[in-house]
């Protein structure tokens, strides 16, 4: 059975790109446009990994990670965050909140796939 | 159905720039609002990230600098000032240009950035180009001994050690041994904790970085030893040290994915083929406007075909067929309503740009202006909204430039220095009224009169009310601005505005109160595509007119029939309404119907009667534009196809009403001449 990845990003173009890339590689993709919607989907669907942006309206990525990690269904689910922050601060915050890995934007499709495969398997 | 993510980005970028602009304009009003600063920053941030991903490097580079400068504002190191807002708005515009026409404007960004950095007191940022440490490992197989142990919470946080081992295995020949020393007795085992450690012997051509990258995400709390099985290269990377290799750039990762034998063919597979897999989407979706036009077009065709079906079954005795035809009629009218609903967009999408316009104008003209918009949620057909932009720009410019006085003059008149321009949209029945109101000096009736007289539009003796005089500003080439400014007063405008509004089957109304301001109100129909029409016959031809414009229908009195060349006025409950004999207007042949009807139609506050041979009834009028050759015909605004396949022209009520008013004016002139 193919793995399901939840992508959370307020940018429709990024979601589309992630979604096309991952579904081309055989993953199922769920989309959410902010942390709130992400949390709702993450806790009501069976998912194998989450890709989330950090800077989002309503609920930002760090808060999403925190709240999701507080939910039992997140056990064992890797969370990868997308970040353009070159400073370590955001990254550390996200990691402390319980993220598994990260991707630095801009990234190419190959890189995205490699990271998803790394944390979720193929 | 293929979508180019770059197109999505462009669309999205426009939205982001729009919300950036809104946030900046709001900030000017409330400079201390942190929410707004964050919102502006977020727009920039997303623009930068997406821009770089979809190959808009100029955009990404520029926005990066923009964002860096703005970050100082976010961190409170620089204050929000009008100067900052002005430059930031200019920067936003520049980004818009970079997106629409890449490669053309890049050079123009420098001065904007310089100004921006000047204001926030930033010396600009040196772009961090992290160069991956050159690896001295050459491409020959080396052997490594790797020992690692995961942090306690790694499993809960989604790290799967099996995947790490898989990755190592992909690097080359592997010998893996699990170290079970720390595994506690069964009853003490916490299933969420990873007690195992691993020892791996790996022979690979990949450099050390590739191995480190396998553990990239696991710096904190893990133990990792990577040891080359050759003298002099032994090294132990502990957690602390591991974090130092973290900021490594993606290039290393790319190396890794290639080194890991990631087959390029796999990801190069065209994504479109898998699009069907994208079963989950967000709850709203973007559809290109042309598709909506296409859909409306098809629905129009369906409505026509349905009318034809109804007409055919009307004559038939087949009950079953009639039932189906009625069902189809119900469905198609439902479909029509839904489709028209989809095409409705809130007019607020337009209002946003006016705030910017007023902001720029007030600076340019040295006037203090408060712009208030209301009714942003009012919905109109998207075609109408699109075409409203220019007229509204004109009217708002006029309001700020001509309407509002200079702050000094306002003070003298006992008004607040700050003038107010109010833009409001409201639903009123089947139309939307949009009004632009300023609290300026109002129109100068005397000046308009003088101008109209010198242009020969009215005779010096004519008695006209102020309101009648005001209407002259809609005449082509009419401008009372004593000097032409760059903003307005060129005399092209109000007539163009009027023409555009009338082309949208709308009307324009102007009222003015000396000393307290001018209001221009646009009345617009909700939709342009399909209207409820009244079908009439004149001679052999059939014509449709918008039902909404029809006020009432009366019989043409016998006396008027006989007096074919008469005064052409009807007494409708005490008021005189001019009427037009469409038979004469259209040069219809054949005998007129003995019982001719007059349809009283209105446009704005004026009414006119249209004499027709027969009123056929209501019909769904699917509006088809006339050919280019006929597009400027005043009397007809379009054509429609009837149920029997024949064509009926749609009467342009606004035009006919004006025509009728012309009658009225000529008559009044005649009367005045006679009296003189």
UniProtKB/TrEMBL annotation, chain A:
It comes from the Bacteria. The modification 4-aspartylphosphate is found at residue 53. GO terms for biological process: phosphorelay signal transduction system. Gene3D superfamilies: 3.40.50.2300. InterPro entries: Bact_response_regulator, CheY-like_superfamily, Sig_transdc_resp-reg_receiver. It holds the Pfam family Response_reg. Residues 4-120 form the Response regulatory domain. SUPFAM superfamilies: CheY-like. Keywords: Phosphoprotein. Signal peptide: none annotated. SMART domains: REC (SM00448). PANTHER family: CHEMOTAXIS TWO-COMPONENT RESPONSE REGULATOR, STRESS RESPONSE REGULATOR PROTEIN 1. This is Chemotaxis protein CheY. The lineage of its organism: Bacteria, Pseudomonadati, Pseudomonadota, Gammaproteobacteria, Oceanospirillales.
